[in-house]
Amino acid sequence: MTARRKSNIKSTLARQNFYDEKSLMQPKEHAGICRSRPALVLLLFSLVGIFAAVATPSAIGQETISELPKEKQTALGLYVTAAEAYEMWKAAPDGVKVIDVRTPEEYAFVGHAEMAWNIPVAFVTYQRKDGKTEHGAKMNPNFVAEVKRLAGPTDTLLVMCRSGGRSAMAVNQLASAGFKNVFNITDGMEGDKVEDPGSVFLGKRMRNGWKNSAPWTYGIDPERIILAEGASKQTKP
Question: Are 159 and 101 in contact (CB under 8 A)?
């Protein structure tokens, strides 16, 4: 994890009172040995090691921020992997909301994080024209409004799609609406494709992603699927 990503996550958690920095840097059990310089140096190195162990993403091959594809970058510049997002939510389930912006079909049939709210940023459309079925996409005009019903502008939101592209679009929409602490889950639900030619999983989305690094389910809680009016599939004869 880069220093910038550590700083982003740490500052956000601090604003939400997820940890007391003073107690982190000066644990009571070390109060007696912090008086000597060698012991203090040793303690600081130990704390750095502990922080690195906790903060290091478990996702395989996760890109650094500078290497993120352009379509995954956002105006807010706040990024986490799926593994990191799960740890953030576990640390404060009442203060962190996970928003899944994939289509309802993906949410239901591909699987989803159990705590995630499904607020699609776009819908798939189907139309019959000249005897052929055409597929398209329609942006959800109520996306920001629905998120505002769920969260406030300073709440911590973790946004995911399949692999980080649509979620970046969603984050930018929320940023334009005044939201400040919105993280893009860069590897999404399914993750990035395996690129190793020697792997039997070449081309499969098994490098990272929520499905490969955190608990998920097919079970549906209807209250967590938020659809805009008129979002159903459209068919023309």
Answer: yes
Q: What local confidence, expressed as pLDDT, does residue 204 receive? A: 79
- Strands, E assignment, 74-116: 79-80, 96-100
Whole-angstrom distance, CA of residue 151 vs CA of residue 28? 36
Task: Report the half-sphere exposure of 46 (CA within 13 A, side-chain side).
Answer: 12
Domains in the chain, CATH or no CATH each = 3-55 (no CATH), 65-224 (3.40.250.10)
Put the strands of the sheet holding 156-160 in their side by side order: 79-80, 181-185, 156-160, 96-100, 117-118
CB count within 10 Å of CB 142 equals 18
User: DSSP secondary-structure letter at 112?
Assistant: B
> CB within 8 A of 75, min separation 6: which ones?
171, 172, 175, 176
Rounded to two decimals, the pTM is 0.69
Cα(235)–Cα(223) distance, rounded to whole angstroms? 27
Among 119, 111, 99, which residue's Cα sits nearest to residue 218?
Answer: 111
Choice between 35 and 139, residue whose per-residue pLDDT is larger? 139
Going by C-beta distance under 8 Å and a sequence separation of 6 or more, which residues neighbour residue 231? 120, 123, 140
pLDDT tens by residue, 193-231: 888 888 877 887 877 899 999 999 999 999 999 986 544
DSSP bridge partners of 158: 98, 183
